[in-house]
Amino acid sequence: MKASVDYNTIMWLLLVGFLLIHHDHLCSAADPTDGFTQVLLAQDNFKLQKPYNVPLQERYSYKDGARSFWVYDKDKPFKPDSTTRPRTEVRITGHDYSSGIWQFEGYAFVPKGTSGVTIVQIHGAAEGATSLQLRIYNGDMRYYKYNLVATNLYDKWFRVNIIHNVGKGKITVFIDGVKKFVVKDQGPGDLYFKCGVYAAPANSSNYMESRWKGIKLYKK
Ligand SMILES: *[C@@H]1O[C@H](CO)[C@@H](O)[C@H](O)[C@H]1NC(C)=O
């Protein structure tokens, strides 16, 4: 009797131990990057755009692996003949795509007060300029000025993963590894990812800033 109790106790402890050790593995959902291959980015794959009349270092810094982008509502566009809103952005270059399944990944930080601004986008579409804009309005992330994607993002780092399946015409957005938003794209075109700050058509704060680190590109 005593021996069988001890046996059960030992088996129970072994089971608890196994579950504790494998807890993370058993409970974690699939990662957005599962099944993707990283496309290595070099410095010249990061092309910067900023108001044409100010030096880069007055709108951008790159320290300890984090890129900071900022812009003012009344800043000039990125080139003199453009009628677009002001921006300080990095355009991923050298890997424009028009088919396949691509993924952007980065960790973003938006300081409180920054509002009315696109922080990451897919440029290009069959019609129109963009396939996706993720904007911050009052600390929340929206699809353009429409659907709510995520809330309460001010003053913290959050992980952004965007999967663009061109063949299926589908874009999926993950925040902190959680699928938050799925939308139809705008048809194939010369497609590429951008991040930073690009003032929205309206409702922009005077000062807009986002910081990015760990920017990665993947494909399947
Ligand atoms: C933009 O501002 C207008 C006018 O104040 C307001 O009605 C609208 O809800 C704002 N839009 C967003 C996305 O915050």
UniProtKB/TrEMBL annotation:
It holds the Pfam family Alginate_lyase2. Gene3D superfamilies: 2.60.120.200. Keywords: Signal. Residues 44-218 form the Alginate lyase domain. The keyword Signal applies. Residues 1-29 form the signal peptide. Transmembrane segments: none annotated. The keyword Cytoplasm does not apply. It comes from the Eukaryota. InterPro entries: Alginate_lyase_2, ConA-like_dom_sf. This is Alginate lyase 2 domain-containing protein.
